[in-house]
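Render this sequence as a predicted structure.
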Amino acid sequence: MKHLPSNIHNKVDKLARDYLASIPFDQRLYRQDIEGSIAHVKMLAKQEIIAKEDAEVIIKGLISIREEIEQGKFLFKRELEDIHMNVEAQLFEKIGDVAGKLHTARSRNDQVALDLRLFAKEEILKTIDRIKALQSSLVELAEANKDVIMPGYTHLQQAQPVLVAHHLLAYFDMFQRDKERFHDCFKRVDVLPLGSGALAGVAHAVGRDFVARELGFSKVSTNSLDAVSDRDFVIEFEATAALTMMHLSRLAEEIILWSSSEFGFIAIGEAYTTGSSIMPQKKNPDVAELARGKTGRVYGNLMSILTTMKGLPLAYNRDMQEDKEGLFDTVDTLHSTLEVFAEMVKTIRVNAKRIHEAIKKDYILATDLADYLVEKGMPFREAHGVVAKLSEYAVNKGKSFRELSLSEYHGFSTLFAEDVYNITMESSLAARNVIGGTSPQQVEMALTRARKLVEE
C-alpha cells in the first residue's frame, strides 16, 4: 500500500472539500511541519514506541519530501486539505505502510499548533532584526543633523525649539518599545504544544522534554486543552505588529508632511518617490503613503483573529483555520514595510536652511520668556498670562521678541531687564538639560545610548 488509508477522510462534497482546504496558504508551513515531524519521530524511537529502523526510514523520507518542495517538484493536492496530509500522503508514496507510524501519539491539532509556534518564533527574530536596521538608519540620520534646530510641534502648531536629532530619536524609542514587546512575545510563543494530542494528551510514554530540546523550545505546555486551542500567541504577535505599524505610519506622516512644498524640511531619495502621470514636477512620497495605508490591513488582521477566537469553546474548532492567512499577511506587510523604511530613511536629506526659515520669527521662545519671569519671582500662571499678552502685542506689531524695545517689555512687566535679550534658540535648548530633554548634551547622551542598543 502506497497511499493514505481510504478512510482517513469522510467523503465530502467537492465544493465543501475545496471550502475546507487550507493547503493554498498553509503550504507555507512545510518546513516547520517537516521539522516537527522529524523531531517527533526521533522521540518515538528514543522512547521505543516505534523501531529505530522505522524512524530512520521515515526521517529519510521526510528529508526527501522537503527537498522536493524546495526544488519546486512537489505537487500539492487540494483534496488532501492541508500541509500535514499532503506531506504524509507523499510519505506513504515514498516508503509505504511504515509511514503510518509517523502519526503515532500525535494529532493534527497539536501538530498545527506546533507549526504555527515554530513559524512565529522565526518571524519574531526576523522582525527584531528589521526593527534594529530601521533604528540604525534613524540614528545615522540623527547624528548627521544633531546640530540642526527645528520647531517642535503640538497640534501641528509651532511650540518650542528642539533638535532634529531629538525628534528622530523619539521614533527610535518607539521602535525600541516595539522590539522589547516582540522579545516579550517570544517568551509566550516559546512553548511546545506537541504531546497534547487532539485535546486530552496522548496514551503513550512520549518524551516531551526531548522534543522541546530538539526544536529549541524552552518550555512545554502544561494543559493539553489549552495547548491545542490557544492562539493567544498569534493575537499577541499581531497586536505587537499593529503597534509597530502604527509607529511606522506616524513616521510616514511626518515624512510626507516634511517633504511637502509647504514644509520643505527634507528631500527623499528619488528611488522612494514616484512621479505624476500628468504633472512632471511632482515627487510623490508613495512609499510613505502606502505604509500609512497598509497599517489598516494589519489592524484588520488583528481584529479578525480576535473576533474569530472570542466565542470558541474548548478545545479545537475549525474556525481556528482562520488564524494563518492574517498572520502570514501581517508578517509580510510588517517585514516589507520595515525593510523599505530602513533603506528610505538612509536617503533622506535634511534642509537645515529651510527649517531655519520656517521658524516664525522667535515666537517659539514664548515659553522661555515665561520661564524667565518665573526665575525673577513671578508665579508661572501669572507669567504665562503676561507672555500671552506680550506675544499678541508682538504679532500685531509685526515684531519679533528681539525687536521689541525694553520699554515695550516693561509695558507688560517691570521684571524684564536687558538680559531678556540673552534668550535665543540655543539658550532655549541648553536650558532643557534634563534626562530626556532636547539640550545638545542630553541628545548626545541619547545618541550614545541608541548606538549601544542597536549594537546589542
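Summary. The chain has 18 helices and six strands. The CA atoms of residues 433 and 441 lie 7 Å apart.
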